[in-house]
Amino acid sequence: MTTGERVLVVDDDPTVSDVVRRYLERAGYEVALARDGRTALADVAVHRPALVILDLMLPGIDGLEVCRRLRAAGEDVPVIMLTALGEEVDRIVGLQVGADDYVTKPFSPRELVLRARSVLRRSAARPAGDPLLVDGDLTVDRARRLAWRDGAELALTVREFDLLAYLMSHPGVALRRGDLLAAVWGWTFGDQSTVTVHVRRLREKVESRPDAPSRILTVWGVGYRYEPRSHG
């Protein structure tokens, strides 16, 4: 049984690519392979895959630059970054340039398939009830997975969109980073700096002054709280 969803795997190691391809195909996905960043960018522009699994270390254009160029071009395709074990700085930078998730090498192919399913499920999710969240100049349409500020559409990744929608759905509530990790990423454990990086990126897009946020507030020792403009 196939899902009909196309996944682009970008890795210059043919052994890794072949293993990932076989596990993804067994899970029902259509898989395309790219060995370098330039080929990956061309593939996304033409075929618009449902998901990109992107190795950090690539010849020529590396994975970080590929992700940066995708986001700069307005491509909102979900990206899972493959990073070396223990390279926390690389993982954080990957999230900062717009990756939705990351898996560290060496990794379990089964875990990667589960992460892929999670990202794709959230990308396609349609909420029950009123899909619109409105707060002053900020509007989030959960049904169409679009967001606007001052009438201009925001370029949000899958995780950024889910995080913003979750925060706006719980106004005035102090939410722990661990709870956000579980609700938005579906992780019962993991590096909570992932949440911190995504909040920082969101603030750059929804706050008038990201260095002095008025919407997404830090609750020291706990996590974050969304404060609607109408309450200020």
UniProtKB/TrEMBL annotation:
SUPFAM superfamilies: C-terminal effector domain of the bipartite response regulators (SSF46894), CheY-like (SSF52172)
Source organism phylogeny: Bacteria, Bacillati, Actinomycetota, Actinomycetes, Micromonosporales
Keyword DNA-binding applies: yes
A Pfam family assignment: Response_reg
InterPro entries the UniProt entry points to: CheY-like_superfamily (IPR011006), OmpR/PhoB-type_DNA-bd (IPR001867), Sig_transdc_resp-reg_C-effctor (IPR016032), Sig_transdc_resp-reg_receiver (IPR001789), WalR-like (IPR039420), WH-like_DNA-bd_sf (IPR036388)
CDD domains linked: trans_reg_C
Species name: Luedemannella helvata
Protein name: Response regulator transcription factor
SMART domains referenced in this protein's UniProt entry, alphabetically: REC (SM00448), Trans_reg_C (SM00862)
Domain OmpR/PhoB-type: from-to ranges: 130-228
UniProt keyword annotations, A-Z: DNA-binding, Phosphoprotein, Transcription, Transcription regulation
